């Protein structure tokens, strides 16, 4: 089966009011969207449930993080089980902002991934190298090490619940997008890694999406790469052009 194209919107710590959140949803609810693409939006946790209640049913909702413990004295955390119980199907884990600003290690990200799939959630698992790592030729090594921790923590069948987001740190929020050749090269390297570290079937079936300054102008070309199965979009997911990114694969009807 071909891999279904996937577009996720990571709202990060935006928008700043409930009214703005409703306006973002209205744009998506009113838009002509390519429903062959799986669409997931990820607002801050306070908006997860109200957003899920007003967004059209074809659009899924993702949390931006969860904790690996089920419950207990962990102030400020949300568990994977609580998300699943609230009907939230996806969670983003290992985003570079969490790895750098909140010092999450690959082992913690792997524990969270394990807890999420055990709770029945699907995971958008983010990996990616810094500019220094890319310039020193370490991209594949860095990304493989980030994935290694997850490979050790979950079972082969759990990979059906994982979408890998390759997000070069130097491209996130910088306006500096990876070229389609750079994205394709790393996506292929990730697929080759999965073939060896997990199985050829998991490598073939797992969606590998690109994130880092994707916008309406660059999404089409990136989407043509054979190993680019979609996007994780930050800044542009808060703008009307998000609709064009969702529709990157849409075939125009002949007139
Ligand atoms: C992201 O935060 O996942 C992201 C890709 O951000 P941006 O599109 O703004 O670079």
TrEMBL record:
The EC number(s) this enzyme carries: 5.3.1.1
A Pfam family the protein falls into: TIM
Any single Gene Ontology cellular-component annotation: cytosol
GO BP annotation list: gluconeogenesis; glyceraldehyde-3-phosphate biosynthetic process; glycerol catabolic process; glycolytic process
Annotated keywords: Gluconeogenesis, Glycolysis, Isomerase
NCBIfam families: tim
Family named by the database record: Belongs to the triosephosphate isomerase family.
Name the UniProt record assigns to this protein: Triosephosphate isomerase
Native source species: Pleurotus ostreatus (Oyster mushroom)
Chain's gene name: TPI1
